Amino acid sequence: MSADIRSVTESELADWLRTVQTGFLSSPLVTDGDVAQRIKYNDLNRTVGAFDPDTGGCVATFRTFAQELTVPGGAVLPANAVSAVSVLPTHRRRGLLTRMMTADLAAAKERGDVLATLIAAEYPIYGRYGFGPATSTVEWEIDVARTGLDRRLPVPDDGGRIDLVDAAEARRTGPGLHGRLRAVTPGVVSRDERWWNLDTGLEALDSRPYKEKYFAVYRSADGEAQGYASYRSDEHWTDAKVPLNTVQVSDLLAVNPRAERALWHFLCSIDWVLKVRTGHRAPDDLVTQLLPDPRSARTLVSADLLWVRLLDVVRALRARTYEVPGQLVLEVEDPQGLAAGRYLLDAGAGTCGTTGAEPDLVLGVAELGALYLGDGSAARLAALGRVRELRPGAVALADAVFRTARRPWCPDIF
């Protein structure tokens, strides 16, 4: 008998959470506080479990929630965010994820979501469900002594200032700055109340105790908050009592380069700090070029981050803007049938619709997801055999049309 896959009830949520934590190799201990926190924020209709027919226990998990994604040009699209995907090691390779994913994507399309998003813990899994890696992330470690910054002046002389604030002030200031950044940055996703409460320590999970942070706000000369950083520092001393501390940045949001420069200068000017780890940044982030010696920043991580799966190709391609004008007929292949079809994109007019014209390019929905936010390369995908060019020059035009001047960025893991 196959496993029963369905939404969980409140009484089953502890078992569901235990399975999530076991699947992610974290502590299987689940407290009443953890369950209460999940009940407060999770939509149980979108919190799914697979239950073993013999034991009745939860053996696989899947959760989605409503999300908004900013696309090139600033439009915001409704997304189906996929999270908490796990299968117990005793029940792998039985098709449980495929059953849960297939049902969920069909429900998301029926609900009117334009696309689905996720952060892939393992690269090989999600392409077969139509997801493509749409943004990348880089983390640098800055050797403070090598930067060439004048550490006597923790803020550039632009009339602005840095204020250290408490968690409550950070909770008030952060969402507004994030909203301004999200309005102009493709790839940024919405943050709900739960995200901000957990990030600032106003709420905490028993299974993941909160570690206190510092919060810094950059204010312009007229007092307007234009940037925000949250960070922690270790406490590392040599036997000779020499401090060798490292700052780990959790979040840094800036609405203009001036605020960004001031915040990085401040973080690299803190006494006793030898290293600054930047946290997740866009691959073309300004931070290294803001340093007099960019080589003082060493790459620690360079990886894919946000994956996108289109559900409504017409709405998705109409919503974003394009770098250059041009017309492309795209033959989109989708084994699940959710986005399959032939589409005429007129990048100059910003229109898209189904068509019977001969295709210029043939590509899978996962490849279209990789291109969608402007980070993927049609030329590279063609070289790999994942995009087929049927009209000479169509691959080059697709690269020119889809690529963006600045690379998309998703600062969050969900």
From TrEMBL:
It comes from the Bacteria. One of its GO terms (biological process) is aminoglycoside antibiotic catabolic process. Coiled coil: none annotated. PROSITE patterns: GNAT (PS51186). The keyword Acyltransferase applies. Acetyl-CoA binds at residues 85-87, 93-98. GO terms for molecular function: aminoglycoside N-acetyltransferase activity. Residues 3-156 form the N-acetyltransferase domain. Gene3D superfamilies: 3.40.630.30, SCP2 sterol-binding domain. The keyword Protease does not apply. The active site is at 126 (proton donor), 414 (proton acceptor). PANTHER family: N-ACETYLTRANSFERASE EIS. Homohexamer; trimer of dimers. Belongs to the acetyltransferase Eis family. This is GNAT family N-acetyltransferase.
